[in-house]
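User: Assemble these into one structure.

Assistant: Restating your components, then the assembled model:
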Amino acid sequence: MICMRTNTAISVAGLHKSYGDNEVLKGVDLEVPEGSVYALLGPNGAGKTTAVNICSTLLTPDAGEIRVAGYDVRTEADQVRRSIGVTGQFSAIDEFHTGRENLQLMADLNHLDRARARKVIGELLERFELADAAGRRAQTYSGGMKRRLDLAMTMIGSPRLIFLDEPTTGLDPRSRRELWQIVREQVADGVTVLLTTQYLDEADQLAHRVGVLDGGVLVAEGTPAQLKSRVPGGRVEVQLKDAARLAELAAVLPEATADVESLTLRMANEGVASLRRLLDRLDDDAVAGVTVQSADLDDVFLALTGHPAEPRGSSEDENEMEAVR
Amino acid sequence: MSTQTMARPATSYVVRDSATMLRRNLLHWLRYPSLAIMLVAQPILFLLLFVYVFGGTLGAGLPGAAGVGDRGDYLVFITPGILVMAVASVALGTAVEVALDMTGGIIARFRTMDIAKVSVLTGHVLGAVVKTVFAVVVTLAFAVLLGYRSDAGVGHWLLALALLVLMAFALTWLTVGMGLAADSVETASNTPLFLVMLPFLSSAFVPTDAMPWGLRHFAEYQPFTPMIDSLRALTAGQSAGSDLWLAIGWAALIAVAGYLWSRRLYTKVPTK
């Protein structure tokens, strides 16, 4: 029986990685306590996948001290591999195999004996709602089913630490929620999760801690609640009936920004008192609607990085496709 | 962490992991039979083409029993070369399979698992050997159907089959490397084409004496010629002599070089 040597499942200090002249990670530090979920949040090209690939031994770092499950990723890669499960960004299933055969393949590669393999495969097929499709080729599966099979394959060896690289990218909302539920079940069993996501609500839904990665640097870190508190109160949006009234209101509210196209005035929500003062200024017949939005991580991203959390090209993706080969 | 997988070196699972990967490889073949059919169809088409289209004329150029050869003599003459083409054809398919694996997501999964690294490649190589035996048997059965007969005994045939398996093993390590080196599946299907072309520039279809000087020298010194000549001797029930040693030497050289190259390409930790 080997236990984790520390209570830290992943510890990364001073991680640097470049692809040629392109410095993708510029000194990242992070700690993931055992049994928790850590989300690396950022747009495409922020370096999320590179960070996961390094922690999961697919890539070597240029510099930095990285320990996973207590082992050094550079010198103890085999021990790290024995301790982790990885579900990458690209589907890692064998499309010519059936669902059950895919799981059998993983059971064999995890060196499970026949009886244990049968038991674990049966349990996973049930748990991941794949029992009915177990005899069908994975080629015929929907996107959500493929993702579930992918994750089930990762769980075959009962890893205590799993990496999920953009686990719900490309899934429809229902499949996303199903996958979240499955991840939560693993976490309830004590599995540590490092996930990457571009979806702010995903980090909010799943993670205990969130690291916001932008341009190869962690620009913020904390619980979802702490990050949200950086943008106190969220936003107030006032929809006006015409442009003249929008201009009129904008003139008396210099802290607000006016969006002429959608006839909307936006401002930070600074609490009940200021909200009441705002409402007092509004003419009943000028206003089409008022919305108060609590802060989400989108606001946090904008506040922290100065730009919205939108994909900014795919140079990192290309490099990483190259790197994984 | 988990209890059952600790305290043993990964190398102790080379055989088990290779067997798992072999099973995966052969399952692909069963699930995707068009690839298999294509690989076996190619040597059979060449056999039909050469025997029925060119065989009458080319056979007349062979020294036959009655002074001049015929179509039947030509069938006997080219069958060893066609068998070698079957080997090359399977090897080509392997480059494509390896490239398919490498460009897919599953390779990242294998790389992050504590398995014998080489098993990802040996699965393909062993699979190719099995497929080669299958392709050789089918091609040979077809040749017999066309009238091919051999006076060779079981011993000679077993030796011939062993040589074909060795060639498959060697050429596949080479094409595994090509599959690993290719940046796309298309490239992987093009690079090994020379393996299918080389038998044409050997003693497979015409005696090398009939070739112009430069080509004749190339044909006589390239690896396929001693392999084909050995097979021709063995399947005729004769001793292959020094050709056999030359063939085995070439195969061993190609196998070792291909293996080292493939292993280097596969285990090289990507830096970019």
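Chain B is about 75% helix and 0% strand.
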